[in-house]
Structures are given as structure tokens and as C-alpha cells.
Design goal:
single chain, mainly alpha, globular
């Protein structure tokens, strides 16, 4: 493993946060504009919904092999290439007249994003010493929530002065800007792509064995990782019914629903500010355990809501708590997964998580169709509560292990 700790300022972390913020704003511009383009082309809400299925499906096609590449590449250059790759594909979208070609291009864009996520996590871990990770992750949550709030606003302005295609072009340049900023960041592995014997099925099997070995040796770490992933799987599945629940059960207007979504972004922002201010006083186990419990509590409040006010309260609780839970999880992940296998471990379990997301989304969608939307959301929320209770208990029981990072050279090949 190669670490550079000679930069004791926040210059590099600030540059990285700027790149993340720029791409996050671009993601929201792209998402909203693409939804409108597809809806305008087809007139079908189902065609728009298909865009959301493409993301976990693309993860299935990438993350079983991506980790093998991530752990052997110059990560900074790789992330820059991924940004340029996505920008180039986004620039193609306005010229496409076939919905199937748009789906194909979006699929490849999502593949790039699926690889970028574990690559960036590994890079962040190398860039930051352990003492700075929790605060950085809190600030990252603040940047992400800022993108959540600013992205739709910027998209709205672009729609006023142009078209959704204008927004698509702007989004491409946000990715290019992100790539340019990352070019200013340090490199940690300057050596060329090195895989003895070439990239092969044999190499993948060997790397999967490394992940399984780590899982057997560090069962408590993987258990907490897996439980947190399950919570996020349930959150994704419940979110898929969010619009239908708000419109058909709560009878909210489009304006009220939009405001409800904005409350979620504001809640994450406020929670991230608290995290950044008090990061040194909040143990990682507290952030994961208690934060996750309150996320599920927020979903339960929302599930039982009968009007906008109660739904807004539930959204506020879950989004505020999610900022704590995410900060705790990211820090836990960075402190307990060896950086030399982080790409492989993260990619492998992202692959598993994508399978669960697809299955859970389909199941809860069928349940809402066969039974009721409200009943499905209530059952899903209580299942999430069960998961987070176990997660909180595991976080408490393994407190000592969590505070002893697993970053030991030579432990994992």
C-alpha cells in the first residue's frame, strides 16, 4: 500500500469535494432533463421508470469485475477517464432519436458511475489520514445535499432559458469540470496497469477468493456492512413508491410533493452540518447504530402519515438521520476495509446489493399493486426497523473492533 501524508492542509480534500459537488449537481440536472426527454418522446411513465431500473442492472454488469481493475490502477487518472467517458456519452444523447439507443447510452453512463463509486471510495481513503475521514465524510454529505437542492434549481433555470437538451449539454461540461479538478489531485499509484497473466476469469476467481477470505476472517465487519446495505436496499425500494404514496394516498399536489422532496435535501444538509461541527465528539458506532434506527423511525412516521405535515415530519427525521448514518458508514468502511482490497470488496458487495435492490423494488411494487400502497410502505418500513435494530446491536457489541482499523499490510493478498 502506498500512502502520502505529506500534505497536511485541506487543499486536496477541498479540491476533491469541489469535484464531487460539481458532478453531483450535474447528476441531478441530467436526471431531471433525461426524465423529461424520455417522457416527451414516449408519453409513458413506464418508459421513465425504466431509467431507474438501468442503474442497478448496470451495476450487475460491472461490479463483479470492476474491483479487480480498481485495486491495480492509477486511481486518479482512472477517475478522470471515467468523467470524460461519461461526459462524451452524455453529449451523444441529444442526437439520438430512438428510445432504445437512449437506454443503451444511459446504460453505459450508469456503468461508468457504478465503477466510479468504489474507485472514488478507495481514492478518498488513500488521500485522507484516519483522523480526517469522519469530518470529510460529513462535508461530503453536505456537498451531496447541496447538489440535491441546487441541481433541480439549476435544471429549472436551464429549462426556462433553453430546453432539456440544453441542460444535458451543461451536465456534460460539469463532468468535464470535475475531471479537470481531479487532475490537480495527487497520484498514489503511478505504476502502469499490472496484472500478471492478463485480465482473465482466473484472475476474477482469485480476487473473489480474496474477498471471501476477508469475509470469513472479519465476519463482524462484513455483518455491519451487509446490514447497512440492506437498510439502503429497503430505503431504495420504499422510495420507488414515494411519488405514488404522496399523490394517491396523501393526495398531495405537485407543488406539495416537490416541497416534500426539498425537505429531504434540507434535512440531509442540516444533519451534515451537525456532523461536520461535532464529528470528533460522535463515535462511528453511534452514527451508524442510532442514525440508522432514526432513519427507519422516519420512514415509519411517513408510512403512517395522513397529511402533508406528518409526512414532512417523517421526511425531516429520516433525512436528518441519514446524514449521520451515511457519515458513520463511510468512515467505518474506510477504517475497517484494507485499502489494498477495498475496490474488490466494495465492488463485490455492490454487486450483491444491486441484486437485492432489483428484487426488493419488484416485490414491493407487486405488493403495492396487489394489496395497497400504504400497506406495502408500512410493512417495508417495519422490516427496515428490524434490520436497523440488529444493526444497532451489532454496532454496539463490536464497538472495540470498529475502533481498531483493519488496515494492516500483508493481511490480505
Amino acid at each position: 500500500m502506498e500512502f502520502r501524508r505529506n500534505d497536511h492542509s485541506w487543499k486536496n480534500p477541498t479540491l476533491l469535494l469541489s469535484a464531487i459537488g460539481l458532478s453531483t449537481i450535474g447528476d441531478w440536472i441530467y436526471l431531471i432533463a433525461l426524465n423529461l426527454i424520455v417522457l416527451d418522446m414516449t408519453g409513458s411513465p413506464l418508459a421513465v421508470a425504466a431509467l431507474y431500473i438501468l442503474k442497478p442492472v448496470s451495476t450487475l454488469f460491472t461490479n463483479f469485475w470492476a474491483g479487480s481493475i480498481i485495486d491495480r490502477l492509477n486511481l486518479r487518472n482512472f477517475m478522470v477517464v471515467l468523467d470524460v467517458f461519461r461526459a462524451a456519452l452524455i453529449l451523444i444523447v441529444p442526437s439520438l432519436s430512438s428510445i432504445w439507443l437512449i437506454y443503451l447510452v444511459v446504460f453505459f453512463i450508469n456503468m461508468g458511475s457504478s465503477v466510479f463509486e468504489p474507485a472514488s471510495m478507495t481514492y478518498i481513503t488513500k488521500l485522507l489520514p484516519p483522523a480526517r475521514r469522519q469530518r470529510f465524510n460529513a462535508l461530503r454529505g453536505l456537498v451531496d445535499s447541496g447538489g440535491f437542492l441546487l441541481g433541480p434549481a439549476v435544471a429549472g433555470i436551464l429549462f426556462m432559458i433553453g430546453t432539456p437538451y440544453t441542460a444535458i449539454y451543461v451536465n456534460a461540461f460539469t463532468f468535464l469540470g470535475s475531471g479537470l479538478i481531479m487532475m490537480c489531485l495527487p497520484q498514489f499509484n503511478k505504476s502502469a496497469y499490472k496484472i500478471d497473466g492478463g485480465f482473465s476469469i482466473g484472475l476474477l476467481k482469485k480476487d473473489w477468493q480474496v474477498v471471501l477470505q476477508f469475509t470469513r476472517v472479519h465476519t463482524h465487519i462484513i455483518t455491519i456492512y451487509f446490514l447497512f446495505s440492506l437498510m439502503m436496499v429497503m430505503a431504495t425500494a420504499l422510495d420507488s413508491l414515494e411519488a405514488a404514496f404522496s399523490k394517491e394516498v396523501l393526495k398531495l399536489s405537485d407543488t406539495e410533493y416537490g416541497f416534500l422532496v426539498s425537505i429531504a435535501g434540507a434535512g440531509i444538509a442540516v444533519g451534515s452540518i451537525f456532523n461536520a461541527l461535532y464529528s470528533k465528539k460522535l463515535p462511528v458506532t453511534f452514527l451508524i447504530g442510532v442514525g440508522s434506527l432514526f432513519v427507519s423511525a422516519g420512514y415509519i412516521i411517513y408510512a403512517f402519515s395522513s397529511n402533508f405535515t406528518i409526512a414532512a415530519l417523517g421526511f425531516s427525521v429520516l433525512s436528518f438521520s441519514l446524514a449521520f448514518a451515511n457519515t458513520g458508514f463511510y468512515t467505518f468502511y474506510q477504517d475497517n476495509i484494507p485499502v489494498d482490497v477495498m475496490g474488490r470488496v466494495g465492488s463485490f458487495f455492490s454487486f450483491i446489493e444491486a441484486i437485492f435492490i432489483i428484487a426488493a423494488t419488484i416485490i414491493i411494487g407487486i405488493a403495492a399493486q396487489v394489496f395497497t400502497i400504504k400497506g406495502s410502505v408500512i410493512v417495508g418500513s417495519f422490516f427496515m426497523l428490524l434490520i436497523t435494530v440488529v444493526l444497532g446491536a451489532m454496532s454496539y457489541l463490536h464497538n472495540e473492533k470498529i475502533h481498531n482499523p483493519a488496515h494492516k499490510e500483508g493481511v490480505i493478498p
